[in-house]
Amino acid sequence: MKKTDYQMIIVGGGPAGLTAGLYAARGRLETVLIEKGATGGQVLVTDWVDNYPGFYDGIAGFELMEKMTAHVNRFDLEKKFATVASMNLQGEQKVITLESGEEVTGQTVIICTGAKPRKLGIPGEEELLGQGVSYCATCDGPFYRDQEIAVVGGGNTAIQEALHLTKFASKVTVIHRRDTLRATAILQEKAFAEEKIEFIWDAQVSEIIGNDEGVASLKIQHNDGTTSDLGVTGFFVLIGVAPNNEMLPLKQLETDAGGFIITDHEMCTKLPGVYAAGDIRSKNSRQIINAAGDGATAELSAEHYLSNMASPANP
Ligand code: NAP
């Protein structure tokens, strides 16, 4: 009979979930990691990772996640590839219900469901998705060889991916709503030195205009009240992340205004036996390295909880 009752359930297989899984498997806990797609999370579509310690020359995001997955596989972590529909995390036995209707139960749950790209919410964005509008430069960049394209955003993702897009496009215009970038200094230096990148500062895209072939131009609203048009065939929206929290029991958990789970520094949520790690957690920096660190901390907290359950302190 298939096992459905575990000591630990990890939901999500990005850097946080895989690291939690690695620690749990090495700790010989009865653990399952539930993942709806391929393990690796958002890093799978990150072109290049240059700041993960130990990888001196940098490493492709896809390759880094292949290595993390292979590492976990060495310790035979059980994985279930399925989509979680809902969770009940109250009480001693936590219940995870899959879209198939199957229930997986466990004593502890580590939520590592990550985040997804934020949308601008402007006219043309939905209609032209996949026809010039994209949230993933690594996935769609090669479609824009020798074309003029634009990126919106001023953070690490926007600038890193704008640099990546110069491998294909003839010109990349970065449109940013302020006059300074949020991206780390080294990325800024590279972007300012890159001839194919131009900036439009203090401006927002208000509409994406399409034609029969897809995106044709952008309407730009400048902060000084003027407007302009920019002719591009590709438009990459890289303005940060929103939580993957649709399957979470948000009334049981405590979240911030953005819907990210609030934890303490040991990754404990307000529910006993329930932890959150990685990008789903309310925090300021969302890096691969701290997602992995969160995963390790969460697993160790869960182990501690399980050992207390097994041998409760004297009253
Ligand atoms: P982010 O750091 O939150 O930056 C979002 C950018 O989009 C900001 O420049 C913001 O402008 C802009 N923005 C937000 N909403 C907007 C809107 N409605 N219209 C126009 N512009 C808007 O997000 P991110 O760059 O995706 O990064 C997410 C996390 O991943 C960060 O913690 C980041 O450090 C990390 N990350 C790290 C690396 C790396 O280390 N190599 C690579 C990628 C991502 P304002 O600046 O005006 O707020």
Class based on secondary structure composition and strand pairing:
alpha/beta
User: What is the helix content?
Assistant: 10-25%
The first-to-last residue Cα distance is 38 Å
Q: What is the count of helical runs?
A: 6
* Largest sheet entry: 7 strands, mixed
Q: Beta fraction of the residues?
A: 25-35%
Bound molecules: NADP nicotinamide-adenine-dinucleotide phosphate
The overall number of domains is 2
Explain what this protein looks like in three dimensions.
There is one protein chain. This protein folds into two domains: 184 residues, FAD/NAD(P)-binding domain, CATH 3.50.50.60; 119 residues, FAD/NAD(P)-binding domain (3-Layer(bba) Sandwich). Strand 6 and strand 7 form a beta hairpin. The strands form five sheets. Strands 1, 2, 5, 6, 7, 8 and 19 form a seven-stranded mixed β-sheet that branches. It has a five-stranded parallel β-sheet with strand order 10-17-11-12-13. The radius of gyration is 22 Å and the shape is elongated. 23% of the residues lie in helices and 29% in strands. The mean pLDDT is 95. With 315 residues, it is of the alpha/beta class.
Keyword list:
alpha/beta, elongated, 23% helix, five-stranded parallel beta sheet, FAD/NAD(P)-binding domain, binds NADP nicotinamide-adenine-dinucleotide phosphate, 29% strand, 315 residues, 2 domains
